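G., the chain you wanted modeled:
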Amino acid sequence: MTIFQAFRFFRKYGSLIAVPNLDDKSEFRAWCGDLVGFCSAMAELTKTKIDDAVTDLALRIVSDDGLFDTFHTVLTSIIDLVGDEDDGDDKVGAADNKLFANSLDVDEIAQRVGMDPATIIALVMAVARFIKWWRARREA
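Predicted structure as tokens:
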């Protein structure tokens, strides 16, 4: 990648620097769209297929109003419960319980995109952990 390509790349995905307010669903959806675009660009650089499948799944969720609304509901219900490697089992158990309480929402997403519910849970947890990690780095 040349310096000019890198500059264009960072200019295109500069919006990812600030994590939006999760309560503003349209702002958060736009940010998720940019994140999926970034991840897709990175996935194109690899020879593996799993990253392509994950970005395709995320794109389907972000592109569909109903799916995104459900995804947003599940994510916002667990984000404060998702910890990092320093958190104890209590928070992990609480996040698992909240996901179980939202299992109908998770099942709805899984059925509509043709994926296993465990994959949807993994995606929700990954996004939640990324947001928390990124916020912590921005605040440091």
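The chain has a mean pLDDT of 79.

Shout if anything looks off.
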